[in-house]
């Protein structure tokens, strides 16, 4: 049996995925949780074969979960199922060690096929998105991305500096670099552009 943990913040989608996978004779859904922190706790407690997660969730994102699983060297494979058909997200997911990346509008049977493939050591990536992911470079480094995300959430330079243990001047430099690289007029426009391209 392939033991699967689901992490999805939308209750209806979470229930639909659980019901869909329960119909497969070789797949067992061992848990279903609504946010990233719960997923992290359940990954450690249940030790599933595969974590199926959305990208955007309260607490930890699906990408942050994948990074944490890789950092702790847990033998759990991660498959992302998302609405975000953006090359930037896929590239960052692959860098985080994700084994599968599927879009929610894919045919239902593709998910079960993907889980079997991943369980046996393969990768299951949306092919059109894979081509796009490697044709577009990511201009931001991790610190610029982190600072820009906080700025987009409405934090001031002082608040960002305090949270990240940086000086305000360093924060302003990171923001300035990110704005310049994205060809934006200000931090809000840079945040919006980065979100559109799946860079945050």
TrEMBL record:
Keywords: DNA-binding, Phosphoprotein. InterPro entries: CheY-like_superfamily, Sig_transdc_resp-reg_C-effctor, Sig_transdc_resp-reg_receiver, Tscrpt_reg_LuxR_C, WalR-like. Signal peptide: none annotated. Residues 3-119 form the Response regulatory domain. Gene3D superfamilies: 3.40.50.2300. One of its GO terms (molecular function) is DNA binding. CDD domains: LuxR_C_like, REC_DesR-like. SMART domains: HTH_LUXR (SM00421), REC (SM00448). It holds the Pfam family Response_reg. SUPFAM superfamilies: C-terminal effector domain of the bipartite response regulators, CheY-like. The modification 4-aspartylphosphate is found at residue 54. Residues 133-198 form the HTH luxR-type domain. GO terms for biological process: phosphorelay signal transduction system; regulation of DNA-templated transcription. This is Transcriptional regulator.
């Amino acid at each position: 049996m392939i033991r699967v943990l689901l992490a999805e913040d939308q209750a209806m989608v979470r229930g639909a995925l659980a019901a869909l996978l329960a119909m497969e004779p070789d797949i067992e859904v061992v848990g279903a949780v609504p946010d990233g922190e719960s997923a992290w706790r359940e990954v450690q407690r249940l030790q599933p074969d595969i974590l199926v997660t959305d990208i955007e969730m309260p607490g930890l994102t699906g990408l942050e979960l994948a990074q944490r699983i890789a950092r702790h060297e847990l033998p759990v494979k991660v498959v992302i199922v998302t609405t975000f058909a953006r090359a930037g997200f896929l590239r960052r997911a692959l860098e985080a060690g994700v084994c599968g990346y599927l879009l929610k509008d894919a045919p239902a049977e593709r998910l079960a096929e993907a889980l079997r493939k991943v369980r046996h050591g393969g990768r299951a990536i949306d092919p059109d998105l894979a081509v796009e992911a490697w044709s577009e470079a990511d201009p931001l480094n991790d610190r610029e991305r982190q600072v820009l995300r906080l700025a987009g959430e409405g934090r001031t330079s002082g608040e960002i500096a305090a949270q990240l243990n940086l000086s305000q001047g360093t924060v302003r430099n990171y923001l300035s670099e990110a704005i310049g690289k994205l060809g934006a007029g200000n931090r809000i426009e840079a945040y919006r552009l980065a979100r559109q391209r799946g860079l945050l």
